[in-house]
């Protein structure tokens, strides 16, 4: 059963989940072999744990073909709902990694991804995000929900079929905590959302803008941590992703798909990571926080300097990254 | 010229160093081609900037063959001593990335590394660390010195010839700051060094121990962030690495080489990252902080969950990692 262990000096928690690997000496051959057949295709539904959500326009039975988006528990979970216990033993503090680890399968087609699906399919994936957020935030153990995408082997995907992962976990992790604290500090001092101020400033300046729609903007942050890091965030202040309306969701789907298509066309279908930051349940800084997606192609390696300092070295100027992504052609679907 | 940009929400700094890459569209072919000849071998001294330190038992001339360890400025520096300026422009704050970025070439032999060199050679590398620490800490701009090793392409090394990198930088980065604060908090509450307490506890428990010598221990931390993460730290309390005595340095060389040989033999010469954490100049928590090296083989990929949360998922139980590394055979030199 996975557990959480606390670093005695920093207070940061680590997930220890041996279920996700084999024995230590299996590292000599580095990593798990890919399964012979893809568990995320039609007809392979029994290869995954039973689904927790699926959109089935044809009213097909659960765990059979016919779905267009399917959510299942991760077969090798980093968090499990088995029990909830904490042990403090001298300097050592650990907890069960109580929570949920799910997979959102983006569609049945093995060779498509969010960059190449129609906008309508991406909108269904976002609907699954919203529904699972709403479900998990109501659970008593959930303090935080993290949705991510690892696309491509170099970005950490163990299966190539396009999917997201959702973690419902029993604590607010350190990086979101630092971000929430920064937003709260700014709000106390200025009585405004710092993200709203950044958005206004980015639109006025323009140099880091990539795209703008009715409800969203895509831009490269001023202090982008890595080349081509891109944020998508609502123009209007909103702290919680899951309050997204249907029309906003459809607009976001198009913005997300277009942004990923810029990566796909401009950077030759790169591996990438996405994470969604939104105000946590029970700790909603309604006026101070502003939800956003961060998407970063995996083009460089974080190494000793980053591990030792927490600072990243971005080898591309953010304004150059934005200019390059703005200029990518044929981002409309079907081009 | 590289610059530092501050994230407006978190306050964390990012290095923007376009000198270390080409134009954005060069990422399509992903990364720099390897140079045709290795700049770190005898006879190629003119391929690097002039040396800042070299050990030359034969009294050979600077920037010619004959050295046994050689320190040179990085040809593609992330920090440069060119000027020192800060600009605040509305929400945006940036500084020149003022500082020094050096390379410590571990020896002239292209096919050896710290795992396979004799202890005496490793001791000379550590002597270079000590001398460069002592030099850089005296410079008025230096607030922090980070020494790291990226070994192997997957661990971020752009040249395969064994080397370390040293960064003398004008601020204390966030991760060391969090660690220093944690150590200070523990000291205020307990009047003891937390690392000294951890060391005593690890020796008493034994389950995470790997090795012990006259002056040092090697162990897997309780909340190890990744598989086989190993710390080497002095048994006696000492906040600053650069105060190491000659006999301690020779003992450390053997411990470091043996530890890396455990990786080399047990995990098939894996890529790895090392970083050295020591009390910063001008901010020496003499009684509260305790210097240590962290060495981690690069066997897994940090992905969306880690980027979004700052939490890592360690797929190996720390006690299993330690047991495996303890059991590795033939770690003495010449075996």
What keyword list fits this structure?
335 residues; alpha+beta; HIT family, subunit A; 2 domains; ten-stranded antiparallel β-sheet; four-stranded antiparallel β-sheet; 15 strands; 25% helix; 22% strand; globular
Short description:
The first copy, chain A, has about 325 residues and is an alpha+beta fold. Chain A is built from 6 helices and 15 strands.
Structural overview:
The structure is a homodimer of 335-residue chains. Chain A is an alpha+beta fold and 335 residues long. Chain A folds into two domains: 167 residues, HIT-like (HIT family, subunit A); 153 residues, HIT family, subunit A (2-Layer Sandwich), CATH 3.30.428. In chain A, 25% of the residues lie in helices and 22% in strands. Chain A has a ten-stranded antiparallel β-sheet with strand order 3-4-7-9-8-13-14-12-11-10, with helices on both faces. In chain A, strands 2-1-6-5 form a four-stranded antiparallel β-sheet, with no helix packed on it. In chain A, helix 1 packs across helix 4. Chain A is globular and about 50 Å long. The N and C termini of chain A lie far apart (47 Å). Chains A and B meet through strand 2, strand 8, helix 2, helix 3 and strand 13 of A and strand 2, strand 8, helix 2, helix 3 and strand 13 of B. Strand 2 of chain A pairs parallel with strand 15 of chain B.
